[in-house]
């Protein structure tokens, strides 16, 4: 009885899991090895691509990205040079500069006076450049002879005379301002500024001082010019006063005239002149009176009795 029970119920119990067939176990190990190899290849490829990209960024494009980094940290700001002053024969200024600012808006440059610039600065406006404003104190009395300044055009930039100008620069458009542009114009300076991520200025790393334009003294006499203007009234005519024997021009005036400050000071200038024009549009569109025409030197008129001086002089020489 005991032996039967011992046979039917052995004195130990085996807890071993049933083994898989030998062929199935080999296949499973082979697949596991393939997966590890695939992961190794993927990681190796990713590591190679990362190292290749780092090499490109640091070696081949390092200087480019360093320049970008410097441009984010530093910036160059132009310090605009003031134009030369124009004096009459007695040393009285006929045109001068006053402190101001310029704001570049795309391809257009807008000049600002101190009051308007202060409002923009108070609102956190950035990009304002310190500049000087060109003022003509005698308004329409010297408009044709002195001329005015304006922003350089694309057509002017294409010429050799103005190839070193920027699109935001100003130059003489007519009169003395145009004729002696190379003398009156100064050389701009530069400031290298270090800033923070918010665009605030931290310190000035370097600076090149601007060189102002040279002054010019004319033969014109302010008092004579104003006297001629008063005598001419409002009719269409031109006048030239010449001194002898040197032939110096004391006065040169054309009527109707205009206020050149409308061209240079723009929207913040309130005209108060005898010409009557309130803005540039009125001046340019007045085809009837043609205020931009300098009748003293550009108008074509019959000589009349003035030519008798020539015939009389010729007769005296041949007599």
Describe this structure as you would to a colleague.
This protein has 319 residues and is an alpha+beta fold. The protein has 3 domains: 21-52; 74-217, Penicillin-binding protein 2a (Domain 2) (Alpha-Beta Complex); 222-300, no CATH class. Helix content is 36%, strand content 22%. The chain contains 12 helices and 12 strands. It has helices at 2-8, 22-60, 62-73, 114-122, 143-146, 154-157, 175-179, 181-184, 222-232, 261-264, 280-285, 308-318; strands at residues 74-79, 86-87, 93-105, 108-112, 128-135, 149-151, 170-172, 189-195, 201-208, 216-217, 237-242, 249-255. The strands form 4 sheets. Strands 2, 3, 4, 5 and 10 form a 5-stranded mixed β-sheet that branches. Strands 1-8-9 form a 3-stranded antiparallel β-sheet. The protein is elongated, with a radius of gyration of 42 Å.
| Elements, N to C (H/E) | HHHEEEEHEHEHEHHEEEHEEHHH
Number of strands: 12
Structural class: alpha+beta
Low-confidence stretches: 1-6
The proportion of residues in beta strands is: 15-25%
The CATH H-level superfamily of the largest domain is Penicillin-binding protein 2a (Domain 2)
Measured between the Cα atoms of the first and last residue, the distance is 180 Å
What is the tally of helical segments?
12
What form results from the Cα inertia axes?
A: elongated
Architecture (CATH level 2) name of the largest domain: Alpha-Beta Complex
Q: What is the fold named in CATH at topology level of the largest domain? A: Penicillin-binding protein 2a (Domain 2)
Mean pLDDT: 82
């Amino acid at each position: 009885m005991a032996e039967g029970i011992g046979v039917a119920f052995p004195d130990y119990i085996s807890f071993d899991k049933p083994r898989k067939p030998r062929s199935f176990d080999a296949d499973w190990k082979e697949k596991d090895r393939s997966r590890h190899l695939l992961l190794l290849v993927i990681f190796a490829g990713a590591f190679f691509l990362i190292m290749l990209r780092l090499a490109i960024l640091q070696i081949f494009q390092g200087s480019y990205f360093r320049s970008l980094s410097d441009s984010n940290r530093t910036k160059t700001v132009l310090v605009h040079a003031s134009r030369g002053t124009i004096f009459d024969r007695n040393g009285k200024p006929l045109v001068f500069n006053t402190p101001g600012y310029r704001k570049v808006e795309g391809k257009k440059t807008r000049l600002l006076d101190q009051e308007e610039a202060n409002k923009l600065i108070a609102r956190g406006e950035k990009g304002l450049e310190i500049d000087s404003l060109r003022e003509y104190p005698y308004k329409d009395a010297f408009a044709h002879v002195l001329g005015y300044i304006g922003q350089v055009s694309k057509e002017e930039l294409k010429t050799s005379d103005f190839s070193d100008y920027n699109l935001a620069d100003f130059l003489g458009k007519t009169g003395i301002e145009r004729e002696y542009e190379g003398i009156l114009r100064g050389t701009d300076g530069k400031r290298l500024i270090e800033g923070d991520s918010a665009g605030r200025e931290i310190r000035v790393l370097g600076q090149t001082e601007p060189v102002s334009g040279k002054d010019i003294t004319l033969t014109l006499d302010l008092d004579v010019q104003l006297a001629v203007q008063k005598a001419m009234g409002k009719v269409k005519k031109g006048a030239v006063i010449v001194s002898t024997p040197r032939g110096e021009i004391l006065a040169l005036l054309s009527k109707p005239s205009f206020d050149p400050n409308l061209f240079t000071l723009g929207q913040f200038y309130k005209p108060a002149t005898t010409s009557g024009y309130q803005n540039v549009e009125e001046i340019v569109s007045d085809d009837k009176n043609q205020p931009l025409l300098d009748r003293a030197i550009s108008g074509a008129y019959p000589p009349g009795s003035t030519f008798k001086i020539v015939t009389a002089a010729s007769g005296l020489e041949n007599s």
